[in-house]
Amino acid sequence: ATLDEGLWRPCAINPFDEAGGACIPHHAAFLNFLPVGRIEEKVSGEPMLDFLGVHQHRGLYEDVRDIGYHLFPPTRVAAWKDFADGTVAETPLPFVDEEYFQHVDVLASALDTWQTGATSFTVAELGASKLGLWAARAVAAWRKLRPDGHCLAAFAEILPKQAEELRRSVTQLGLGDCNSQVWTVDVQKVGLPELLGSLGSPVDYLDMDIEGAELPAIMQARSFLKDRVRRIHIGTHSRHIHHSLEQALRQDGWHIVWSFPNHAYVQTPYGR
User: Fold this and answer.
1) What is the tens place of the pLDDT at every residue in 205-234?
2) 158 near 133, Cβ under 8 Å?
3) H/E element holding 228?
4) What are 207's strand-pairing partners?
5) Model pLDDT for residues 111-135, shown as the tens digit of each residue
6) What angle separates helix 74-85 from helix 59-67, to the nearest 10 degrees?
7) Helices 100-115 and 133-145: crossing angle, nearest 10°?
8) Are residues 230 and 205 in contact, defined by beta-carbon separation less than 8 angstroms?
9) How far apart are CA 139 and CA 157, in angstroms?
10) Is 78 helix (H, G, I), strand (E, B) or coil?
11) More exposed terminus of the chain, fewer Cβ within 10 Å: N or C?
């Protein structure tokens, strides 16, 4: 069900803007997904849930602790602080940070597929690490809309140890009743047509974060992507890669919803 406008729509919090501004409502996609509510989980217990109810891998917090909180989005840092303190987590909607728009893409992909009347949902996350969170979040959103629907979730990770840990985490991520598979593979060498074509169905949501290999991988698969993929979220790793991919995708007829070049401020409806 879709909530009526204004019934539940808290302010989107942008930690990069000065405090005291007007309340800017969250993106409309969030209206369909009420947060799961309060949960209490201590450091010694299971990992906390996000607002969709997906168990977040312990590594999500350990990376913040080990690498440094200044390198991570505020939503992830806030979750780490709750985890480290052993405090109650409110599982709120995300802050307006670099992952906010990735959340919107995840929710929109589930909504778009649901609105077509489809009963199955296919997602792929390339460069999934040991976390696999974005495909898991997409499936969780799909489950809220189509509880009895089918799902196919595929993950690719080049590092064998991380891929194996991800395989062990599939059930915890809420994918136990999905047709799930984890590939230990170099996406650029195998190629997107061969990798994603093996799924046997169009991909409703493709999430890519493959550390600079996104440019050759996509440029070699432009026709395939146009025919077989409905929505893509790409992490780009240089301005050259970003602008080259954006130009190519526009030429192929893709509608670019968000565009955030590396190391740049971009004005959005929610601030910079």
Assistant:
1) 999 999 999 999 999 999 999 999 999 999
2) no
3) helix 222-228
4) 125, 233
5) 999 999 999 999 999 999 999 999 9
6) 100
7) 40
8) yes
9) 19
10) helix
11) N
